[in-house]
Amino acid sequence: MIDLHCHLLPALDDGPATLEDALAMARIAVADGITHSVCTPHIYPGLYPHTAAVIAAALTGFRQELQAHDIPLAVSAGADIYLTPECLSALSDGRYPTLAASRYFLLEPPHHAVPARFLAQIQDALQADFIPLITHPERLDWLDETHYPWFLQAAQAGAWLQVTAGALLGGFGRHAQRWSERFAAEGLIHVLASDAHDPHRRRPELSAARARAAQLLGADEATRLVVDRPAAILAQRPPQAVPAPPGLTRSLPVRRPPGGLRRWLPRWDRPRGGRRAGAADDA
User: Fold this and answer.
1) pLDDT tens by residue, 66-118
2) Which of 56, 71, 266, 269 is a Cys-bridge partner for 283, taking CB atoms 3.0 to 4.6 Å apart?
3) What Rg value do the Cα atoms of the chain yield, rounded?
């Protein structure tokens, strides 16, 4: 399995404070069947003002530690990028990293306040040929029947949705579990990820959530959540190269915002930060 959202790098954010804890998390991931983790520390202006260069340097050192401790976990760079007006420009000029140097990036909405221009910023990113992977919508305090259609609209336009493995199992409370099950029942989840932060309470594990997803969606779709679609991102494949979630292949009701939010298929030959999207860079 591949974990696209994991706070694994030590002493960068609210993830592991020490190298020992980070290595313990890596061992847990391997024991759970995870072969590749994308290390995604928070980028949050004013609190975690990291850049792609800072994260790449931290990843290089951590990869060396994994090798020195004989932990067979492949790692790549990314970031859990908080939604701000400047995040698109920072992605475009390379200050913020995408997931493993692809066109996909983790986009974290505010947890407690309804964001302004949410769908407009999604559309802006899609038009710039980035694919937002919206993180843990099921855990947002403001998610309700009024705002749930926003995520359907975003997914229909071309954004991807990432649900937290622990939320599907009830680890984040009833609100998050209920909404994660709703996203699953309506076939809107693209990816399951651990969003792990430590080796104790928020561990880097996917297997139990994969089993639960198999009960809800079938074994094939559960595999796509933790293997096929994450692998497509690592391979820098376009979204249409893998099967869409089942809810996006059938007609579902949607309330569109004024002006509409249309489906956007990115051009995969456009360079990011002066480089072609297909250029290899795992640092």
Assistant:
1) 999 999 999 999 999 999 999 999 999 999 999 999 999 999 999 999 999 99
2) 56
3) 17
How many structural domains are present in the chain?
A: 1
Q: What is the CATH number of the domain that holds 198?
A: 3.20.20.140
Q: Per the structure block, which two tokens stand in for 277? A: 């999207």
d(C-alpha 214, C-alpha 152), whole Å: 22
Q: Are 268 and 238 in contact (CB under 8 A)?
A: yes
Q: Which amino acid is at 124?
A: D
Closest C-alpha among 163, 111, 115, 114 to residue 135 = 163
Distance separating alpha carbons of residues 235 and 263, to the nearest angstrom: 23
pTM above 0.85, yes or no: yes
**Contacts of residue 85, Cβ cutoff 8 Å, sequence gap at least 6:** 117, 121
Q: Which domain holds residue 183?
A: 2-248
d(CA 215, CA 168): 12
Assigned domain for 177 exists: yes
For the residues of 102-161, what is the DSSP string, one character each? SSEEEEE--SSSPPTTHHHHHHHHHHTT-EEEEE-GGG-TT-STTTHHHHHHHHHHT-EE
